[in-house]
UniProtKB/TrEMBL annotation:
It comes from the Bacteria. It holds the Pfam family C5-epim_C. It comes from Glycomyces sambucus. Residues 66-90 are annotated as: Disordered. This is D-glucuronyl C5-epimerase C-terminus. Residues 221-403 form the D-glucuronyl C5-epimerase C-terminal domain. Residues 1-34 form the signal peptide. Keywords: Signal.
Length: 582
């Protein structure tokens, strides 16, 4: 549950009334219904479970067909953590509200001018689409004890390089753990569990307050260990060092904690003041230290996950910037602050502008702009983060980018019971050089090892446990039972396709598709068996628009679900229409 935050002293800030960006699209489609196709006899090769219902619901609000959420990234992965080689700031007491009001004024101007395209924060979105609502901490993880994480005596999560090595405060790990506990607190019904989730979240916020570094009229949250990345030159830090990702995420933690019913009034005021001071760090340029934001030579704003040792330098990391932007969105929603709105616009403009450098067409996207290293785990994060930017701006461009990333390198694992349909006829099967599970290995590079043709006299099915892009090829399925276990077959509708809906993206607000003029287009419903049904063929004299609320891979093709007019609920193939966001 959430409550209304009390008014606090923000007289130094200009306020901007919050509002939602809403796109409305209407359309109509007329056409005579065609008779469904005749039933076809089907045999099965291997032991293929029945295909699951396309609308089967998983726990929560998401559909079982939706794009799977990857584990949270580990910010220190691929690097070396070492004890601090110089003195780090000693912990201090949490600040008093009265003292905060007497400190130097908060920044009230932008750090510099930067390019803006007019993006606004869409604030009226469903609760489950808001930042971090998809990242609940599971009850079994509320007291972590793993190779790299554990709780200290105060209940604060610590990062350790290995089991027998002392741990350190790591701001991003603490913030993300705290935000996960806040999300779980909101939905937990058991009072004891609910209380512990809140205790854990408050402990993380408390440690940030104790370790804060006050500089340049802002609060910064230091990393108290040395860190060198193995492959990213320039990420070579001596403690204390700082990250724009932590600065932005801290805003989210403080804002979201302030909105919970079970925090005291003093805690609420403290968290709001802390959010103000964390936000102030994003209003300080790279002309002093510490710093987290800069403007590149083309005039675009960046929040640097890994700021360089020299002004204006950094890794230009995409995922870290977007995670930090979620803090700006939370801050705008809570305060209506004009400066935060300007920064959010600038960040969205930057991500839009540099998407072509993030994207690695028909393959894994690049982790950062400086090193351009394709990283499979972060590609799935990019898909999820761009989908959230679509929700948080209401703009279709980020949704289209989500579609492109999904098609470039889709999440490879199929749902339990996934089944491939084979049309009668001849098919070519392949063996590729992968790991034992069928996943990509750079040293093997999906080399073709063997191929053969098989002929089926009638329509056939087989179970599959992978659907992924093979490097320098198309999308393939990996058969996981029967005579062809371990063989791959290319996706090609209607000859071979995965039955049902897969990798769904929910649109909010609805997007718009356009039927071309004077072209016959067939639309379909999707039956409970996952197959296309009730086809309707339509044609329009002039281009005709219709809203759609969902984009998925349906029976091996990208399709859109129409959400208005006489074709409501029907799916149309992407190749037959055009969509917004171009």
């Amino acid at each position: 549950m959430t409550g209304t935050s009390p008014a606090v002293d923000r007289r130094r800030f200009f306020h901007l009334a919050g509002g939602a960006a809403v796109a409305a699209a209407t359309g109509s489609a007329l056409g005579a219904a065609a008779a469904p196709g005749a039933a076809t006899a089907v045999t099965t090769i291997g032991t293929a479970p029945a295909a699951p219902s396309v609308l089967l619901k998983a726990p929560g609000s998401a559909s079982a067909a939706e794009i799977p959420l990857p584990p949270l990234p580990e910010q220190l992965e691929g690097g070396t953590v070492a004890p601090p080689s110089r003195t780090v700031p000693a912990p201090r007491e949490a600040p008093e509200i009265e003292a905060l009001l007497e400190e130097e004024p908060l920044p009230d101007v932008l750090p510099f001018e930067f390019n803006r395209d007019g993006y606004t924060a869409a604030l009226e979105i469903p609760e489950h689409m808001m930042p971090w609502r998809d990242r609940a901490t599971k009850w079994e993880n509320v007291t972590p004890d793993t190779q790299h994480t554990y709780l200290d005596e105060a209940g604060v999560i610590q990062y350790r390089p290995d089991w027998d090595v002392p741990g350190y405060d790591q701001p991003v790990t603490q913030i993300q753990f705290g935000l996960g506990c806040v999300t779980s607190y909101r939905s937990e019904q058991d009072p004891t569990r609910k209380a512990l989730f809140l205790t854990r979240a408050k402990a993380q916020a408390g440690r940030l307050l104790e370790t804060r570094v006050e500089a340049r009229g802002a609060w910064y949250f230091p990393y108290p260990f040395d860190f060198t990345h193995t492959t990213h030159s320039g990420v070579d830090y001596r403690a204390p060092w700082y990250s724009g990702m932590a600065q932005g995420e801290a805003i989210s933690l403080f804002i979201q904690l302030s909105e919970l019913d079970d925090v005291t009034e003093d805690e609420r005021l403290l968290y709001l003041a802390a959010a103000d001071r964390a936000f102030a760090s994003l209003l300080r340029a790279d002309d002093g230290t510490p710093w987290a934001v800069n403007r590149n030579s083309a005039g675009y704003l960046w929040i640097q996950e890994y700021p360089g040792n020299e002004p204006g330098t950094g890794d230009y990391t995409y995922n870290g910037m977007v995670f930090a932007m979620f803090g700006l969105w939370d801050y705008i929603r809570a305060t209506g602050n004009e400066l935060a709105a300007a920064l959010f616009d600038g960040c969205c403009t930057t991500i839009d502008r540099y998407f072509p450098l993030l994207r690695n067409e028909r393959w894994i996207s690049f982790y950062c702009q400086t090193h351009r290293i394709p990283t499979a785990s972060y590609h799935q994060h990019h898909i999820n983060l761009f989908r959230q930017l679509h929700w948080q701006t209401g703009g279709p461009r980020f949704a289209r980018m989500t579609d492109q990333l999904t098609d470039d390198y889709p999440s490879p694992n199929t749902p339990t019971g996934a089944t491939i349909a084979f049309a009668a006829g001849t098919h070519t099967l392949y063996r590729f050089d992968t790991d034992a599970d069928g996943d990509y290995v750079a040293s093997k590079d999906d080399e073709e090892l063997e191929k053969k043709t098989v002929t089926f006299a009638r329509a056939t099915q087989a179970p599959a446990n992978k659907r992924r892009r093979i490097h320098n090829r198309g999308i393939y399925y990996r058969i996981n039972a029967g005579a062809y276990t371990g063989w791959w077959i290319g996706e090609y509708y209607p000859n071979t396709y995965l039955i049902g809906e897969y990798l769904a993206t929910v649109c909010h607000p609805n997007r718009t598709l356009t039927f071309p003029a004077a072209k016959q287009v067939t639309c379909y419903l999707v039956g409970t068996d996952g197959k296309l049904a009730s086809p309707r063929t339509v044609s329009f004299t002039n281009p005709s628009n219709a809203p759609f609320d969902r984009r998925s891979i349906v029976n091996g093709r990208a399709m859109y679900r129409i959400a208005g007019g006489s074709l409501t609920g029907y799916w149309v193939w992407a190749g037959d229409i055009t969509t917004d966001g171009r």
